[in-house]
Amino acid sequence: MSDTTTTPTSPPAPAPPPSKGNRRGRKAGPADNSNSEFANFPEVEYFIAPGPRGYPPLTEFLDIWEVDMMRRTDESNKLEHHTALYNSEHLVIRRAQEFQIKLTFNRPYKPNEDKFAVEFTIGSSPQFSKGTYIPVFFTKDRQSAWAGRIIASSDNVITVGITPGTNCIVGKYNLYVAVVTPYGVRRTRPDKSREMYILFNPWAKDDAVFLDDEMEREECVMNEMGIIYHGAYNDVAERSWNYGQFNFGVLDACLFVLDQSEMPIINRGDPIKVARQASAMMNSQDDNGVLVGDWSGDYLYGVSPTSWTGSTDILISYARSKTPVRYAQCWVYAGVFNTFLRCLGIPSRVVTNFFSAHDNDGNLKTDIILDENGRIDRNRTRDSVWNYHCWNECYMSRPDLPQGYGGWQIVDATPQETSDGLYRCGPASVHAIKHGEICFPFDAAFVFAEVNSDVVFYSRRKDGTMDLVKVNRTHIGRMVLTKAPGDETRRDITNQYKFPEGTTEERTVLEKAEEYGCQRIKADPPLADVDLTLPTLEISVGDDFELDLEFVNRSKEKRTVEAYISGSVVYYTGVSGHEFLFRTPTVQIGPQKSVKELVQIESKKYMQHLVEQGNLNFIVTGKIKETGRIITATKLVALHNPKLTVEVSGNAKVNEEMMVTVEFTNPFSFSLEDVNVRMEGPGVMLPRRKTFSLILGNSNLTWTEQFSPLRAGKTRIIATLDCPSLRQVDGQVSFTVEP
Q1: Are residues 372 and 272 both part of a single domain?
Q2: Which of 412, 443, 722, 730 is catalytic?
Q3: Fewer CB within 10 A of the terminal residue: the chain, N end or C end?
Q4: How far apart are CA 273 and CA 296, in angstroms?
Q5: What is the pLDDT of residues 568-594, one digit of tens each?
Q6: Which residues are annotated binding-site positions for Ca(2+)?
Q7: What is the pLDDT of residues 428-478, one digit of tens each?
Q8: Which of 230, 389, 431, 435 is catalytic?
Q9: Residue range(s) defining the domain that contains residue 93
Q10: Pairing relation of β-strands 586-589 and 422-423?
């Protein structure tokens, strides 16, 4: 050991915290990532140095008196750009299409002598090189990034036409008019009335979101009232949703979402980047986004996901409070995301996948672990199968992928797994998913697993080794639905995601997916010689019912099955809640005979444990004593909730007063407490809410409200009722408003 002594030293001083401001020397100015901030241009810019008497006056040259943005809904701009429904005091137009403004000068315009430009700015530090400052000239000797022309001239007024670039930034712009003189430039002062919005344009062939199908375009851009499908594969239910993309404040709220994400302004003309960024921002998981997800059943500090009737309340609340809104589940994420996309002009639709796999470990198969006796080992089963899952499709070209992979793209805002460090998913090409090209960005492998996973059952021995028991290759992605364009019926689009089961094309796709890492079980374990079937049931909340199980022995010998019958309240995500039924019968079956096992289910066993989706999941497993084979069967029972009655009265004409009445009868013997009722309708009523502290058992609730339709056409008022004891109660009424 050394006898050298050391002098104690004080610990090093902690490093200073990193500065949140601009790193000096790295770049000239702060990041331009806010569409709510504008740079103020100087009213006068001189080309020359001041003389002995200062700067020369510019008043003797052409002067701007007035700028008419032609922003009224009955004028050509909004009509031709399909933006007349936006409830905004500003001009809203679409890129890659000409719009018009009128300029009034102090004297008649002289083309050979006078020079002027219309300038557009977006963001806090506009630059010509980045496309955030765009001057438009109207003479042949000056080239402009956006096309401009003089359409008409009369006295002191001229009408000009301007065509924004096909890939220009989408957002809120400031407009200036600048007159060029020999001595300098004089421009209009900043004025909020000249602020304007430029959106994506699915009507323009050169735009990346061009959709060449008028009916589909009308549905996926202009329609405000949607239908979101849920429930079970063999018992599909519908939920109406008011997207409200044209409601006052919604467009600003959508732009605020991008501001909150700190997305650079220069990236906001690319629909791929916008959709991907918004996919992360719709959830609050890691970036203070729009919605807080919750599947717990306890919504004391927010709004139950099943209570929402549309997107307007959510987006407006987020923009005002700048904090995430509580609470959401997959259809709420999809509904709000659909509003965002349609509002900015990206064609989109909500899609529901029945029996949707959540591939937790990334092996592209859903693993179910059983113990040696055939009972599910819930501690070791990590993957789950959602009864249904909602996501979005948006339509756009994909120049980053090979030709043919554009069109519908999957985007999903529900936080399931991270992608590039954030909870988001997509855009992933639907064409790529169908053809097994899971190597393409973004998140194609995860989506492929959601619709194509094999459900693989393993039996785990006590020593930890696993035996393959059963492979179900047809359970996942049983049906993919979306709303039919121009109709209130559903449209089955399963064939857009996958080829028919068992076909040559499907086998080819699976082989291709294997090349990119998809791990599939090719072996088929020997089939057990006992079949197990469970009945299809339609049950209402509060009903007693019978579960009739049938064991069929296909062998020529007697079989004994030691069975496990489990009944659980289950979330729609496949996660089990309370187990209300567990039996272990031993079933004797004669050669080539069948035996039925009848199980009585009393409502009092499950009612107090129900979660908002009202699903019961029955799992029957068992071990055949003579052969050691394990058999399994599952059955999901979606309980049907009571309905609201919604009726309207009065003369259905624009601006004439009408009445809407919501009625509900409590069908239970117990009282319902803290009942919230909501209703809204596109073009007729903004969201309204009323709270009832108590509805006694078997008593009625009635709520009547006045409203005045704002525009003509077919519309709908939807209503929901929600309380801790009863979720997902809704009703609606459709009617046509005359001009």
Answers
A1: yes
A2: 412
A3: N
A4: 32
A5: 898 888 887 888 999 999 999 999 999
A6: 452, 454, 501, 506
A7: 999 999 999 989 999 998 999 899 888 888 888 888 888 888 888 888 899
A8: 389
A9: 44-199
A10: unpaired
Helix (H, G, I), strand (E, B) or coil at 386: strand
Task: Measure the CA–CA gap between 309 and 214, rounded to whole angstroms.
Answer: 28
CA pair distance 392, 91, nearest whole angstrom:
28
Q: What is the CATH number of the domain that holds 659?
A: 2.60.40.10
Task: Calculate the alpha carbon distances from 608 to 302, 412, 670, 726 in Å.
Answer: 22, 33, 11, 10
Tell me, yes or no, if 90 is annotated catalytic.
no
Nearest CA-CA partner of 444 in 456, 431, 460:
431
Condensed to tens digits (0 to 9), the pLDDT of residues 401-428 reads 999 999 999 999 999 989 999 999 999 9
pLDDT band with cut points at 50, 70 and 90 for residue 622: confident
Candidates 220, 330, 343, 425; catalytic one: 330
- What is the pLDDT at residue 360? 58
- Name residue, tokens 């050298």: 4
Mean pLDDT, rounded, of the chain: 89
- Are residues 646 and 719 in contact, defined by beta-carbon separation less than 8 angstroms? yes
Instruction: Verify whether residue 32 is a known catalytic residue.
Output: no
Residue 20 lies in a domain: no
| Alpha carbon of residue 255 to chain centroid | 16
Q: State the virtual CA torsion across 534, 537, 542, 546 in degrees, nearest 10.
A: -50
Give the pairing type, strands 454-460 and 365-370. parallel
CB 134 within 8 A of CB 119: yes
Q: Mind giving me the DSSP string for 20-39? A: SS--TTT-SS-----SS--P
According to DSSP, the β-strands at 658-665 and 615-624 are unpaired
Alpha carbons within 13 angstroms on the beta-carbon side of residue 74 total 0
Distance between first and last Cα of the chain: 100
Whose CA is closest to 201, among 281, 98, 73? 98
Same domain, yes or no: 303 and 396: yes
Our answer to whether residue 475 is catalytic in this structure is no
- Clarify whether residues 540 and 493 are in a common domain: no
Alpha helices in 533-602 (DSSP H): none
Peptide bond into 442 cis (omega under 30): yes
Specify the number of domains making up the chain.
4
